[in-house]
Amino acid sequence: MGDVSRETPSAPPVTPDVARRVFSSARLPLIEAYAASLADAGVVRGLIGPREVPRLWDRHLLNCAVLGDAIPEDSSVCDIGSGAGLPGLVLAIARPDLRITLVEPLLRRTTYLSEVVDDLALSQVEVVRGRADALHGERTFDVVTSRAVAPLGRLLDWSMPLVAPTGALIAMKGQSVTEEIATEASRLAKAGCSPAEVLELGAAVVSPPSVVVRVAWVDPSQVGWGVAPGQTPSRSKSRRSRGRKA
Ligand SMILES: C[S@@+](CC[C@H](N)C(=O)[O-])C[C@H]1O[C@@H](n2cnc3c(N)ncnc32)[C@H](O)[C@@H]1O
Question: How far is the CA of 131 from the centre of ligand 1 (A)?
Fold first, then answer.
């Protein structure tokens, strides 16, 4: 793919058999349509690199879908820094029981997200244009997800104020997450969080399995995440849409 320009659409890669085990027969056409959209509009609009297309299923769709194994049924989920919809849109397709809020500051990306939500009639998905920290003090969710958004320290600052007292942060991370956790351990303890757990999900579906860090509150009656140095609590300047362009 080295000589293919960023603006050149690609044909969607063939659906692997394992996808039929991960997505129900009713939802498979939706994830295939999303895969086709990423390979075409996603590449043309610079939302994903053309080199990602041949590995769209393994590295992106399936490895995000297995995150659902750590998300309880009927949860409200906030996916921060959704980009082109990873993992939030994949979860919405795999798990129609979830109510999903996609939070993304960049207009070009929220426009794409809203178009996919409309095209696939994902009525349980809300697209919010803004920074995750703009929702602090306004909204909480059972689960706050993310992939490739920020180092763990900053991710905790953005995510934990959005985690409901009985909820959890569930963030996709690389193998180096163990070192990041060690750096943040005392801050987690001081804020009343349980020690961060590292989970490997989807070993039967993707290789390598998806590495996820999970952080919950120890005591739901004692919940609070201090404002990080240099950060001021922000009132929401975010804009919301359900199935419309943000
Ligand atoms: C590297 S991209 C990852 C996108 C997607 N999660 C993925 O795995 O493909 C990071 C995304 O985080 C978004 N972002 C950056 N700061 C943010 C913040 N404070 N709150 C929410 N999203 C943020 C960026 O706009 C960008 O879309």
Answer: 9
Indicate the pTM of the whole model: 0.91
Query: 148 by DSSP, 3-state: which?
Result: coil
User: What is d(CA 56, CA 65) in angstroms, rounded to the nearest whole number?
Assistant: 12
Give the ligand 1 atom nearest the CA of 109: 27
Tokens 């939030």 belong to: 88
CB of 60 sitting under 6 A from ligand 1: no
Distance separating alpha carbons of residues 115 and 152, to the nearest angstrom: 30
201-215: per-residue pLDDT in tens? 999 999 999 999 999
Distance from C-alpha of 83 to C-alpha of 195, rounded to nearest angstrom? 28
Q: Which helix (H) or strand (E) holds 119?
A: helix 107-119
CA of 195 to the centre of ligand 1 (A): 25
